[in-house]
Amino acid sequence: MDYVDYYTALGIDRSSDKDQVAKAYRRLARQYHPDRNSAPEAEEKFKQISEAYEVLKDPQKRAAYDRYGAEWQAARVGAPPAEDGWQTAWGQSGFSTFFEQLFGSGAHRAGGWDVFGAPASENLDLEAALELDVLEAYRGGRHHIALRDARTGQQQTYAVNVPAGVRQDQRIRLPGQGRQGAGGRRGDLYLRVDLREGGPFRLRGHDVYATLDLMPWTAALGGTVRLQTLDGAVDLKVPGGSSSGRRIRLRGRGYATGERDQRGDLYAEVRIVVPQYISPPQRRLFEQLTELDQPKDTSL
After folding, report:
1. 174 to each of 117, 187, 192, 237, 295, how far by Cα in Å?
2. CA 129, CA 165: separation in Å to the nearest integer?
3. Is 135 helix (H, G, I), strand (E, B) or coil?
């Protein structure tokens, strides 16, 4: 694979922070993964963005890349840069496991696993993404994950206790579960929390958003409906005349802020849905409403 500028590969500026790097990588990885994109250039593009992310996500590797510039390619394949002989070797993630990590195909609900390769000759620590939805992250608890070593292809299942209320990019350390080095010493495994957008809840800061589906008559007349929250179902009073997009606020029902007993809010966003089947009496009532809604002829 020819040398490419890692910042260009991810479509980011050199001033981009760690969160911007990760966001760009996740977006492009979903777009170009060969199991999802059949275009001839997709696999090569995926390799480029994976290599770019491996370097730019790590402050030390990124600093080295910024320092050596075009000589990074020589360092990557083992030829020492002209200045001080710095070099490293990289592992590569397996395509099928990475696809499971992104989209949950054939994996535990917490996500499939794939190692983002660390420098094999120097660093025994491993890192993998722990994919959780908002409810799983809020509740925490015990999860079983299958991790595949990118170098050996071996897969091993681990049990991890996820603390309740974990946040995006928070890391969970599993001591002694990394690679084994000389003399039997083992590194650690770090699981980086990746909150996926799917599921019934969406997290924005400390506030949680949930979709509230209403039938037209409930939206028009108001009423009490059941709403699922992070803490279970509650009865929610819906004001009459609620149009799609209206937000009903439940104070203190959002995500933990990290301060003692403090939480964000939950917003139920109204979405009016139409039943796929209506009975004959219901049809007649809708027809009557349609007639009542017709403008009156005021001409003389």
Report:
1. 17, 9, 11, 45, 69
2. 17
3. helix
